[in-house]
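Worked example 4.2. Below are the chains of a multi-component assembly; read each line carefully before continuing.
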Amino acid sequence: MKRPIFLDNHSTTPMDPQVLDTMLPYFVEKFGNSASRNHAFGWTAEEAVEQARKQIAKLINADSKEIVFTSGATESNNLAVKGVLEMYKEKGTHIITSSTEHRAVLDTAKSLEAKGLATVTYLPVDKYGMVNPDNVRNAITDKTILISVMLANNEIGTINPIQEIGKIAKAKGILFHCDATQGVGKIPVDVQAMGIDLMSFTAHKIYGPKGVGALYVRKKSPRVRLVAQMDGGGHERGMRSGTLPVPLIVGFGKACELCEQNMAEESARLTTLRNRLQTAIMDSLEESYLNGHPTNRLPGNLNISFAYVEGESLLMGMKDIALSSGSACTSATLEPSYVLRALGVGVELAHSSIRFGLGRFNTDDEIDYTIKKVIEIVTKLRDMSPLYEMAKEGVDLKSVQWAAH
Amino acid sequence: MAYSDKVVDHFNNPRNMGSFKKDEEGIGTGMVGAPECGDVMKLQIKVQNDTIVDAKFKTFGCGSAIASSSLATEWLKGKTIEEAQQIKNTDIVQELNLPPVKIHCSVLAEDAIKAALADYQKKSGDKTEAAQ
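Applying the procedure described above to all two chains together yields the following structure tokens:
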């Protein structure tokens, strides 16, 4: 078993070696610009891009012409929200989104608000992190032009009722954007069945290369239009100028193809592995709390709060396992995870959370090792924790007058 | 973020981790911080003839908070009450090589020392008064 073990597959994933093999010829040998129309170098590149476009479109049940390449999901989210607002601002400037979106959506919305270009409704989520479709329906006004709700959350893995929200959007004639960065390639995504008009996703979360993503832009019923946020040569149907990164796109296509071929098997394997990790840890450690939906969750996701111990110290105690925490100490903001807070998780428990992100290359042995390590370090740090000691003595921690600092 | 070797050492091998009974003779207890802020330190000193003969800590917090309190207990042992009053958070920052985002951990450790000393003085003062 190689260490450190990578259990942070929501942040990024290692590239599948098959993806790399597919990309390699497009760096030196087949280096052409896919926009060069008049020679073989260009044609070869264009052919490769169109092949990738088909592989990507197939994974989400779209038409290949509906795929717009970007630099990644952050750009896709920016392009979708800003591009739609700019195009349809005469119709209205109200946007509905949710409080647990990725910051690429939230901060885009906030920046539009700050500039006075849009009004935004941030919908609450339930204790599992789910958006209630009724809340979406009730938030709609005659000025609403866009609903943007994520498919699956990056911290807690909770999957939103996208199809129902899509139906509501369609019935009201409002465009529906979905940030599907964490979901595409992991769970079935069908833009037709789900009623999605625009969808952001990226290659590096699905064992493809970093630096390339896509925005699905619906072409028929309705035909979605956008104002480009990058001016230039008019690539990607005028929606995103810039020479296409052919090797990355080829890799993105192959990554999608592999996901499509292996999804059923891979998600079953990861669910089993994840459940084993969850059960073993939670059965051994009292006062460990699952964050997110118990069942309606990404196969590789597990987010647990361990009462009385702080997240960063947990990570420090498991240096040979790459994980992530909702603790403020691990972020630049000194605030614990806004996602966990939106679920109603207390600040103390948000500080105590660990996110496990399982992926394609994790093995049974790695999970066994992780189980052992987690139990060991939580026990050790609880022994060290004055809060655990007080709780054991029967002190109600909520009744203590803490000197906040 | 990389931790300094000293922080890692204190984290992996905490010194004087544990608790004294609060009602034991000559014990001063300081508890500072808050769970919502992500760190709580409990620091205890055992005093005999105005000298700190033993110290213990328990900390809920990040590695730097644990290291700061562990180091504080090491430094407290053998010091008189007055010498202990002189320990500054900046000494802890320097010794542990704490980055700017972790300075609050050292501040908390200084606060914990002060709180433990104050608790001891209050208790021994109460006793003196009672005796008189």
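Take a moment to check your reading of the output against the notes. Residues 6 and 123 of chain B are 34 Å apart (CA to CA). Chain B has one domain: 5-124.
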